[in-house]
Amino acid sequence: MLKCCAAMAYARPHVAGIRRHGSGSRLFLFILPSHQADTAMLHITDDIALQDWEMTESFVRSSGPGGQNVNKVSTAVELRFEAARSPSLPDPVKARLKRLAGRRWTKDGAIIIQCEETRSQARNREIARARLAELIIRALVKPKRRIATKPTYGSVKRRLAAKKARGDVKALRGKVSED
After folding, report:
1. Residue from 149, 172, 136 nearest 20 by CA
2. Which stretches does DSSP call E strand in the chain?
């Protein structure tokens, strides 16, 4: 999950990016105050930053509780990232991203992330951007190649002996003859 590295004491924090710290698998969410936030770019790593034309956001009315606020304010966000056309991502990362995104990947190569968790439009926007960044970070990790191994001689012998013993038990379950 995401860990917050900066203090949340700012009035209106904005997601500046998610970065991997060290060689471990920890993810850190960097948060900037609203006057320092660069909303046009989403920084994923030092090498990868998504441009503003790659992402489009639309705001719709949220479902669920919220009283009359639900009927008046469009707080839910739908973030659309043009992953297939993105020059920021290498082709292997795009392939892994397609697999990880699942049904959020559209036929035209875009990823759609919806968020309606909070009653604040700005907070829903930050959550959607953080989810996209986390998804891309997971796609950046190259899976380990499986090395085919052979079972040991002893394990093969033990397996065959267990099968023989089980077969003998089942053979004794037959009808008893009257000899």
Report:
1. 136
2. 2-4, 13-20, 27-33, 42-43, 49-50, 55-60, 76-81, 111-115
Q: Is 156 helix (H, G, I), strand (E, B) or coil?
A: helix
Q: Which of 124, 113, 116, 114 is nearest to 65 (CA)?
A: 116
Q: Which pLDDT band, with edges at 50, 70 and 90, does 33 fall under?
A: very low
**pLDDT tens digits along 72-83:** 778 888 899 988
- Contact between residue 15 and residue 125 where contact means Cβ atoms under 8 Å apart: no
Length of the chain as a residue count: 179
Q: How far apart are alpha carbons 136 and 67 in whole angstroms?
A: 35
Strands 27-33 and 2-4: what pairing?
parallel
